[in-house]
Inverse folding.
């Protein structure tokens, strides 16, 4: 018992010094702090966290189908540049948007997870269906006529900025306002 404890402390010290011995970045202190707290949480709260986690993560949010109107936003890339048309669009909760490739693909529709409120994220992600390449990011649409449809049912009123991943740097972005 005594010797095991001593070993654990030695390992911890080694880990810390290995961490601190590297490049000195401002983040290093944070890193050590995070490591320490996560170790403590794992050992003390392993049991209770198992029952708490599913509720917190809310992994199983069902897609809420469109109940209102479906509006069309064209995805265009031509001599005038890359753009959504219209880029800024207002809809009612329950409406949907069909994003259709007109030219200049591949295009997609993506929301920066950092700009979407925590209580909206899971529902919006679910409302994009399974046609996604990652969280809040639709698959690429290559050819004219291909489309991605997103439901805004159960999405609380607010302004949701979105963009096309390959053409974001070229200004292909807009804002969806849900009333
Ligand atoms: Cu694009």
């Amino acid at each position: 018992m005594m010797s095991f404890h001593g070993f654990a402390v030695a390992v911890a010290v080694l880990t810390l010094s290995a961490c601190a011995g590297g490049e000195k970045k401002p983040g290093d202190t944070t890193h050590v702090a995070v490591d320490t707290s996560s170790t403590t949480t794992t050992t003390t709260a392993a049991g209770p966290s198992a029952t708490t986690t599913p509720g917190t993560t809310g992994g199983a949010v069902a897609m809420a189908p469109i109940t209102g109107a479906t509006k069309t936003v064209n995805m265009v890339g031509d001599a005038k540049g890359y753009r959504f048309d219209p880029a800024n669009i207002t809809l009612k909760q329950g409406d949907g948007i069909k994003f259709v490739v007109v030219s200049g693909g591949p295009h997609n529709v993506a929301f920066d997870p950092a700009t979407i409120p925590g209580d909206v994220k899971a529902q919006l992600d679910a409302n994009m269906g399974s046609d996604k390449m990652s969280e809040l990011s639709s698959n690429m649409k290559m050819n004219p006529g291909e489309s991605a449809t997103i439901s805004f049912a159960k999405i609380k009123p607010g302004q949701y900025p979105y963009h096309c991943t390959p053409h974001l740097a070229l200004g292909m972005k807009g804002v969806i306002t849900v009333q």
Remarks:
- The chain has two domains: 2-57, 70-178.
- Helices lie at 2-21, 27-44, 46-57, 118-127.
- The longest helix spans residues 2-21.
- The CA atoms of residues 65 and 151 lie 6 Å apart.
